[in-house]
Amino acid sequence: MSARYQIGGATAAEISASVEAGIRSGTLPAETALPPVRALAADLAVSPATVARAYQELRQRGLVATAGRHGTWVRARPPVATRRAALLPPPAPGTRDLSGGEPDPALLPPLGPHLAALAATIGPPTGYATVGVLPEVAGAARRRLAADGVPVDDLTLTGGALDGIERLLGAHLSPGDPVAVEDPGWANLLDLVASLGLRPIGVPVDDEGPAVAGVRAALAAGARALIVTSRAQNPTGAAVTADRAAALRTLLADRPDLLLVEDDHAAELARVPLHPLAGVTRSWAFLRSASKPYGPDLRLAVLAGDETTVARVAGRARVGAGWVSTVLQRLALALWQDPGTAALVDRAGRTYQRRRTALLAALADRGVAAHGRTGINVWLPVPDETSAVTALRDAGWAVAPGAQFRIAAPPGVRLTVSALTDADIVPLADAVARALHPPPPTTFTA
Ligand SMILES: Cc1ncc(COP(=O)(O)O)c(C=O)c1O
Question: Which pTM value belongs to this model?
Answer without folding.
Answer: 0.92
